[in-house]
């Protein structure tokens, strides 16, 4: 075995089984490895993602972990800490073997991308969340085999809302719209893809109060295949200026036109002492420093923009705009 070579899980299992059965000794294994210079390639573990793309997926899910931390902290009102532990590409069947036989699995569609994405949550973590939602202290337990219909509905709703943030984490790469489609507790019943197809598994260290466990995001290669070029460092480093379509520019203009701004017609100002202020009573008159014959200053968002005069329109108080105040808006910023 050459330096830096990493054995697969199946190779490790085979070696341990052979050593335990006495079929070979450690010395024989060492001699065999020294004499062998041909590296075995396992086609069942085809590497479809480059190291660069795995790093990009890690960055995306680090952002996702931060968003989940904020979301669950607000929903559960307890200490929550979520961080990326690892990101690996493995066959789908190996992912299924690596998680508990009975666990919490949420299945999502991510249009416009095809296929499904899994969010697997350790039962200890899932029940701590459920306990907090129901008003408890966040005690983790494992009775996933006996989930009631109410517990299933509460959990699926919670993770459905949480996975919406997956869209925000991916917005710099692709626009996706996660859609909850299924809730399962036995991974053996899931037949998303072929057992030997490659998936990326991003493992998230999760702490909810005193409960600790893992959440795993499983993304099949077929889901990411259409956007694989965007996961390269070249795409991230490109300073591409996104051009807005005429329709998008029109929608932005409509939203700006519909935005509300405060308008203030200032009648005048006055300065009084603190003592005078403390002695004010109902009926007292404060004399302004501005004559009734002088125009008013009309402010838009606290910035002087117009000169106007007071009056009435349809028996209601009104201000008539006489002129615009010329000058740089920055001059009025405090």
Automatic annotation (TrEMBL):
GO function terms (MF aspect): cytoskeletal motor activity
One cellular component (GO) term of this entry: plasma membrane
Top-level taxonomic group: Bacteria
Record-annotated Flagellar motor switch protein FliN-like C-terminal domain positions: 254-325
Annotated CDD domains: FliM
Locations listed in the record: Bacterial flagellum basal body; Cell membrane
Keywords assigned: Bacterial flagellum, Cell membrane, Cell projection, Chemotaxis, Cilium, Flagellar rotation, Flagellum, Membrane
Gene3D superfamilies the UniProt entry points to: CheC-like, SpoA-like
Bilayer topology: Peripheral membrane protein
SUPFAM superfamilies in alphabetical order: CheC-like (SSF103039), Surface presentation of antigens (SPOA) (SSF101801)
Main location as per UniProt: other
InterPro entries, per the entry: CheC-like_sf, Flag_FliM, FliN-like_C, SpoA-like_sf
A single BP term in Gene Ontology: bacterial-type flagellum-dependent swarming motility
Similarity field: Belongs to the FliM family.
Name recorded for this polypeptide: Flagellar motor switch protein FliM
Native source species: Geobacillus thermopakistaniensis (strain MAS1)
């Amino acid at each position: 075995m050459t330096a830096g070579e990493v054995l697969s899980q199946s190779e490790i299992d085979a070696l341990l089984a052979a050593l335990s059965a006495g079929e070979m000794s450690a010395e024989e294994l060492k001699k065999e490895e020294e004499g062998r210079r041909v590296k075995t390639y396992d086609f069942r573990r085809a590497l479809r993602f480059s190291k660069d793309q795995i790093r990009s997926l890690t960055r995306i899910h680090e952002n996702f972990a931060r968003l989940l931390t904020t979301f669950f902290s607000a929903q559960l009102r307890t200490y929550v800490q979520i961080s990326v532990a690892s990101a690996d590409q493995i066959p789908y069947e190996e992912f299924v073997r690596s998680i508990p036989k009975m666990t919490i699995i949420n299945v999502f569609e991510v249009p416009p991308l095809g296929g499904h994405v899994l969010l697997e949550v350790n039962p200890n973590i899932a029940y701590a969340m459920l306990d907090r939602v129901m008003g408890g202290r966040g005690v983790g337990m494992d009775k996933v085999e006996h989930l009631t219909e109410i517990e299933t509905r509460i959990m699926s709703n919670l993770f459905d809302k949480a996975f919406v943030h997956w869209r925000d984490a991916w917005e710099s790469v692709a626009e996706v719209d996660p859609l909850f489609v299924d809730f399962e507790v036995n991974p053996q019943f899931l037949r998303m893809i072929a057992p030997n197809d490659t998936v990326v598994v991003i493992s998230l260290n999760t702490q909810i109060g005193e409960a600790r466990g893992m959440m795993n995001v499983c993304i099949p290669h077929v889901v990411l295949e259409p956007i694989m070029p965007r996961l390269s460092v070249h795409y991230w480093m490109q300073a591409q200026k996104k051009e807005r379509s005429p329709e998008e520019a029109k929608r932005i203009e409509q939203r700006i036109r519909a935005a509300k701004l405060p308008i203030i017609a200032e009648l005048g100002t006055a300065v009084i002492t603190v003592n005078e202020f403390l002695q004010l009573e109902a009926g007292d008159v404060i004399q302004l420093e501005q004559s009734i014959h002088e125009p008013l200053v009309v402010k838009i968002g606290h910035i002087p923009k117009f000169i106007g005069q007071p009056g009435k329109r349809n028996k209601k108080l009104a201000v008539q705009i006489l002129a615009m105040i010329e000058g740089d808006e920055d001059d009025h910023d405090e």
